[in-house]
Amino acid sequence: MLTIAPEIEVLARFGRALADPIRCRILLALREAPAHPADLAELLGISRTRLSNHLACLRDCGLVVGVPVGRRTRYELADVRLGHALDDLRTAVVAVAADVTCPDAAEKGCC
């Protein structure tokens, strides 16, 4: 039986996933179309091992799923609404903070 996670937990998972630029790039790539790991690694210019670690994180967060296709696994967003959320968030951030930086992010633990 599927259970719905509390809203705060869901937002925290999404935030953890977006906290890493590579995971952001993976999510944005999968927003465009499902992909196999080898193709994603090539597209992003990273090793398959590094990609695998990030995909595991995104799976654990419930944001992507692996779909068996023959002997290979294709990855896609767990829910089509995640693509819409990424678009909305990306647009909102660009509209609100296109020229804003977070200079003391490391000190404050934000960003």
TrEMBL record:
Keyword Transmembrane: no
DNA-binding found in the keyword field: yes
SMART domains from the UniProt entry: HTH_ARSR (SM00418)
A biological-process GO annotation: response to lead ion
Residues covered by the HTH arsR-type domain: 3-100
Molecular function GO terms recorded: cadmium ion sensor activity; DNA binding; DNA-binding transcription factor activity; lead ion binding
Gene3D superfamilies: Winged helix-like DNA-binding domain superfamily/Winged helix DNA-binding domain
Keywords: DNA-binding
Protein's recorded name: DNA-binding transcriptional ArsR family regulator
Lineage, top ranks: Bacteria, Bacillati, Actinomycetota, Actinomycetes, Streptosporangiales
